[in-house]
Each structure stands twice: as structure tokens, then as C-alpha cells.
Design a protein that fits this description.
The structure holds 2 protein chains of 2 kinds.
Chain A lengths: L2 E8 L2 E7 L13 E6 L2 E5 L7 H9 L9 E3 L5 H4 L2 H7 L4 E5 L16 E4 L4 E5 L2 E7 L9 E5 L4 E5 L18 H15 L3 H12 L5 E4 L5 E2 L1 H12 L8
Parallel strand pairs in A: 4-5, 5-6, 6-7, 11-12
Antiparallel strand pairs in A: 1-2, 2-3, 3-4, 8-9, 9-10, 10-11, 12-13
Chain B lengths: L5 H42 L4 H54 L2 H58 L6 H30 L3
Helix pairs in contact in B: 1-2, 1-4, 2-3, 3-4
Classes of the chains: A alpha/beta, B mainly alpha.
The complex binds fe (ii) ion (FE2) (2 copies).
């Protein structure tokens, strides 16, 4: 089972990270899921693949009534992001899934119908959770061609999807990045190979530099905090991407 | 708690594939009979007065081959329909498996939720699919039985043709050859249908 860790809390506004499943088979990539709660309302970010649904569901239930989850945010269309959709729909058939307009006719292969999807335009959109306005921030081509981050101005958290992802060795289980230089080595190969566009990358760096970010939360690996956020953006800005061989 | 096993549904899919293969071979054979019957009709015409009865039977055999082809295409349509049903069942089985794993990993409220879900919506859907498959199987069984009857008629025609061949005068040997071919080929179809029936009745 995964662990649910509260990474931000102010009144009834909360961020819960669902991380590190010790029983996960090695052939599946490890993923982080995040639940943003505001009062009685919540949105689940990158709910994950159907294979890890049991781990996510049971960890999440410890913190929040799963029947009340009526919103999913899919940063992009990958199976490790959203192939559990049909399972979440079992609990709430009216659940909404926010995803780039590019993928609204692709993701239904994992489940859902025309009522399920809320298409995000390329420029981004606001998503209300309780009384809190979250922002879907464009991050196209990083790595998916229709790709969004989610920014929470109140918590000052940016959920960055595959950006900032690190494929950590099994013994590195810390929730937060401890030693940036050591950590980033596990992120480098992934960013070079998966991220497709240098121009898109520069755009993204410029865009998120304008945001006030305390925590940058990727879908794989550890969370960047404080100074590390800027360090990551600077590191990414100068990294050569779209490279097949190092 | 009952869960749909992927083994069950895998077996259903394999059964359908097997049936489809068998149908394909019957269709090919029916096509062959049609050609053979056409040749027999020409042969009977050449043999003239002595092979009148044989000519009539050849015409009947040709009609039989056409009927058989029609029957087989209906059978095939039906098995395609069952692929959709079985696919839904496979999906249900997979879902059921994940839910069961979730149940085992959960406790308290979440476990209760899962159990409730599995009991109601899930098992209902499963029962509905099983029923659909049972209905399909019944219809398929009926259709195979009808086909077997048709083929029995074909077999009778072939045997009669053999008897008629004996009166074929100088063409007797050639007509005998043709009617033996009919008999043998229809025999092949009978064996295919027997295999289909067995596949249908096999509870495993
Ligand atoms: Fe991805
Ligand atoms: Fe990913």
C-alpha cells in the first residue's frame, strides 16, 4: 500500500501526496498521486494506472471519502497517468476528468464517455475546487504534446506532471529532494529523452518563473522545495532536450 | 465473494475462436461441393438420357451447398456477436480482479465501499453477461443442430447419386467417381459439425 502524506495544510485546504508503494512490482514505474482538498471538495491529480489503483485507493481512503471525488486531473494521456479512469468511475459515474483537448477522444479508450471529459484549451483554464481556484498551466511537449501542470496559488504548489520527474533507485525513498545535485542525476536522462521541444521548454521555464512556487511536485520521484524549485527551473532551462543518445 | 476469473473468459474466447475456425472449414467445403455439383450437372448432361436421375440429384446437391453456405454465414455472424459479449466479460473480469485486490488492501470504510460495489453493480453486470453468453450458446447449439440436419440431407443425396451412377451406362465409372467425392466431402462436413457440437456441449 502507498502512504498518504499531507504536504500542505491551511484550514480546510490540503495537499495530500500518495507515494511509495513497497509492494509495487518492479516492472511498473513508480508514480506519485496528489489529492487537493478544499473543504468537502477534492480533485485527484494524475490518478495513476489501473494496476496501482488498489494502492492509491486504499491510501487515499485513509484521508478522504473516495465517493466524494468527482474531479480528476490528467496532466496528459499516458497509461501511468489515467488508465485507472474506469475504476474511479465505478465509484462515481458522474466523475469529471480534466484533460487537454488533444486527448479527449483518446483517453476514453481507458473508460468514460462524452459526459466524462472537460477539454482544457491550449492556453490553460481555471479549475474550481471548493472555494479555491486552481490553474491549469500549459506545459505542452513536456513530454506530451497536450500537457498541463496544475498551480495552486493558495498553497503555492505547482504539480508538474512528468517535468521534474526522477527515476530513483529503490533505496532513495525520501519524499522531498534532499541533495539536489545527487537527485538531479536521476532526472537528467529522463528529461533529455522524454522532453521533445527545446522551444517549449524555454517557454515553460519563463512561464513558471512568474509563479510563486514553494513546492514543485512531479509525478515520479521526490518533491522540490524552496530554493530547489528555482534551481530545478534553471537546470532545466540549460538542459539539452529531445536527444535520443546522450 | 465471487469474482469473474480471467481464466473463465479466456476459455470462452478460445471456444469462439475454435468455433470460427471450424465454420471457416465448413464454408470452404461447401464451396467445394458447389463446384463439384456444377461439374456433376455438366457430366450428367453429357451422359444424356442414362443419367437423368443423376442430373436431378446434382441440382439438389448444388442447392444443398448454397443453403449450407447461407447457414454458415449466419453462424459466423452469431459468433462475431459473441466476441463482443465475451470482450465485455473479459473487461468485467479484469475490473473484478482489481477491485478484489483493492478490497484485500483496504480496511474500514473503503473495504465496506468496495464490498458493496462488488456485491451490487458488479455482480449484476457479471450475471447479465453470463446470461447473454448462455443465450448465445443456446442459439448457437440450435443452429448447429439445424445445420447437422441439412447435412444429413446432403449425405442422403450423395448416397442416392451413387446408386443412380450405377445406371449411367458408359458414364457409370465417371459418375461413380463424382458421387464418391460427394460422399467423402459431406463426410468431412459431418465431422466438423460433430466437433462443433462437442465444443458446444463441453462444460469445461
Ligand atoms: Fe508521461
Ligand atoms: Fe509519467
Amino acid at each position: 500500500m502507498k502512504t498518504a502524506r499531507v504536504i500542505f495544510e491551511a484550514g480546510s485546504h490540503k495537499w495530500i501526496a500518495l507515494v511509495r508503494d513497497p509492494n509495487r512490482p518492479e516492472y511498473l514505474i513508480d508514480t506519485n498521486e496528489y489529492l487537493v482538498v478544499d473543504g468537502d471538495d477534492a480533485i485527484l491529480l494524475d490518478p495513476g494506472g489501473s494496476e496501482i489503483f488498489p494502492a492509491v485507493f486504499s491510501a487515499l481512503s485513509a484521508e478522504f471519502d473516495p465517493r466524494k471525488i468527482d474531479k480528476l486531473f490528467a496532466s496528459h494521456q499516458d497509461p501511468d497517468i489515467i488508465s485507472s479512469l474506469s475504476l474511479w468511475r465505478e465509484f462515481n459515474p458522474r466523475i469529471k476528468c480534466y484533460v487537454s483537448w488533444l486527448w479527449t477522444s483518446f483517453v476514453p479508450h481507458f473508460g468514460g464517455d462524452q459526459e466524462t471529459f472537460v477539454a482544457l484549451p491550449d492556453g490553460g483554464a481555471d479549475i474550481m475546487v471548493g472555494s479555491q481556484r486552481l490553474q491549469a498551466v500549459p506545459a505542452h511537449y513536456l513530454h506530451s504534446s497536450g500537457n498541463f501542470n496544475l498551480y495552486d496559488p493558495k498553497a503555492r504548489i505547482l504539480f508538474s506532471g512528468d517535468i521534474g520527474a526522477a527515476l530513483l533507485p529503490p533505496d532513495e525513498t525520501s519524499l522531498f529532494v534532499e541533495d539536489f545535485d545527487r537527485h538531479i542525476r536521476h532526472a537528467e536522462g529522463f528529461h533529455r529523452r522524454w522532453m521533445g521541444s527545446d522551444k517549449a521548454k524555454r517557454d515553460w521555464c519563463a512561464r513558471v518563473s512568474q509563479l510563486d512556487i514553494d513546492m514543485l511536485c512531479p509525478q515520479h520521484g521526490a518533491i522540490y522545495r524552496g530554493e530547489q524549485v528555482k534551481r530545478f527551473i534553471d537546470w532545466f532551462a540549460q538542459l539539452e532536450v529531445g536527444v535520443v543518445k546522450a | 465473494m465471487t469474482t469473474v476469473s480471467t481464466r473463465d473468459t479466456g476459455r470462452e474466447l478460445r471456444r469462439i475462436v475454435h468455433i470460427n475456425e471450424e465454420i471457416k472449414s465448413v464454408v470452404a467445403t461447401a464451396f467445394k461441393i458447389n463446384l463439384m455439383a456444377m461439374n456433376a450437372i455438366f457430366l450428367a448432361k453429357r451422359a444424356g438420357q442414362t443419367a437423368l436421375g443423376f442430373g436431378v440429384l446434382s441440382n439438389e446437391l448444388r442447392r444443398f451447398a448454397t443453403d449450407l453456405q447461407k447457414q454458415m454465414s449466419q453462424l459466423r455472424e452469431m459468433t462475431y456477436g459473441s466476441v463482443a459479449t465475451v470482450t465485455a466479460l473479459v473487461k468485467q473480469a479484469r475490473l473484478s480482479g482489481v477491485l478484489d485486490r483493492t478490497r484485500r488492501e483496504s480496511d474500514g470504510l473503503s473495504r465496506q465501499l468496495i464490498e458493496e460495489l462488488m456485491r451490487t453493480r458488479h455482480n449484476q453486470a457479471y450475471a447479465r453477461h453470463r446470461e447473454q453468453i448462455a443465450t448465445l450458446k443456446r442459439r448457437l447449439g440450435q443452429m448447429i443442430a439445424d445445420t447437422a440436419q441439412l447435412v444429413e440431407l446432403g449425405s442422403l443425396l450423395a448416397r442416392s447419386a451413387k446408386i443412380e451412377a450405377a445406371y449411367g451406362g458408359s458414364y457409370s465409372a465417371a459418375l461413380m467417381q463424382v458421387s464418391s467425392d460427394f460422399e467423402r466431402t459431406i463426410g468431412e462436413i459431418q465431422r466438423s459439425l460433430e466437433s462443433l457440437t462437442k465444443q458446444q456441449e463441453d462444460p469445461s
